[in-house]
Amino acid sequence: xxxxxxxxxxxxxxxxxxxxxxxxxxxxxxxxxxxxxxxxxxxxxxxxxxxxxxxxxxxxxxxxxxxxxxxxxxxxxxxxxxxxxxxxxxxxxxxxxxxxxxxxxxxxxxxxxxxxxxxxxxxxxxxxxxxxxxxxxxxxxxxxxxxxxxxxxxxxxxxxxxxxxxxxxxxxx
Length: 173
Prior knowledge:
- The chain is an all-alpha fold.
- It is 83% helix and 0% strand.
């Protein structure tokens, strides 16, 4: 079990960093562009964005979802390994919680449903729906990035050795 710890930690760390970067990039760049397009001309957005997304390729979206899925699985697997080894449970618990929490926020807030309708619609969405998307888009993705950065911080703070710490004050972790 200890042999699996380091590769799992590495996979969880890399994918958590990537997904946090995706979310930050969306909040700062792509999301702002989408907000601007929706505010400028909803008809043009409906005519262009779904076509662009399809042309950009389902491959790109598939890779994004695959990395997100691997991130969640790796963080949960690391937690299971940590609990089994009775080592680094706090860091692994924080990372696993972050991996699940950002998805819960996305869909639990209702933003995931709004985003799906707005980004997949080939007809102009209502002004209320567009306003709801613009109001939540940046803040939800910044919250995702923040949650994931906390998880990444917990992962990076974990020592790379899987044995118990020799420091008696850290005996419980």
